[in-house]
Write a structure and sequence with these properties.
It is a single chain. The chain is an alpha/beta fold. It has five helices and five strands. The chain has a single domain (12-116), classed as Glutaredoxin (3-Layer(aba) Sandwich), CATH 3.40.30.10. It is globular and about 35 Å long.
């Protein structure tokens, strides 16, 4: 039964949605992913977080082959907030092989997010 749940999550990501995870799932997701994981630390009451949600869904759809996108609700993950010293939201963090490598604070449009995360995704930057 657990395998089916994981399959559903993969389908959701492929269709263009950031996958919500809790503190228990977080460690497994970031440490077992074969590709970089972009984690969105957000809150329901946060306006910029709500504005970032469709941007992250679009990013997840566009770069599903290069990067996994997950969402962690900050108020339900106090241990992660403390562990990564997150004091502002939205905070986006990139994890590679289970380790935090890069972090961004605040909302961004898709183009800016692509530019800032270019080292982790394949973005065409050279003219042919």
């Amino acid at each position: 039964m657990k395998r089916d749940e994981e399959s559903v999550k993969r389908v959701v990501v492929a269709e263009g949605f950031a996958v919500p995870v809790d503190e228990k799932q977080f460690e497994h997701m970031v440490s077992t992913s074969a590709k970089p994981v972009l984690v969105d630390f957000w809150a329901e009451w946060c306006g910029p977080c709500k504005a970032m949600a469709p941007v992250l869904d679009e990013f997840a759809a566009k770069y599903a082959d290069e990067m996994q996108v997950i969402k962690v609700e900050a108020e339900k993950a106090p241990l992660l907030m403390e562990r990564f010293d997150i004091t502002s939201i939205p905070t986006l963090m990139v994890f590679v092989d289970g380790k935090a490598e890069y972090s961004l604070v605040g909302g961004r449009p898709l183009g800016m997010l692509e530019k800032e995360l270019g080292a982790y995704i394949w973005v065409e930057t050279k003219d042919a």
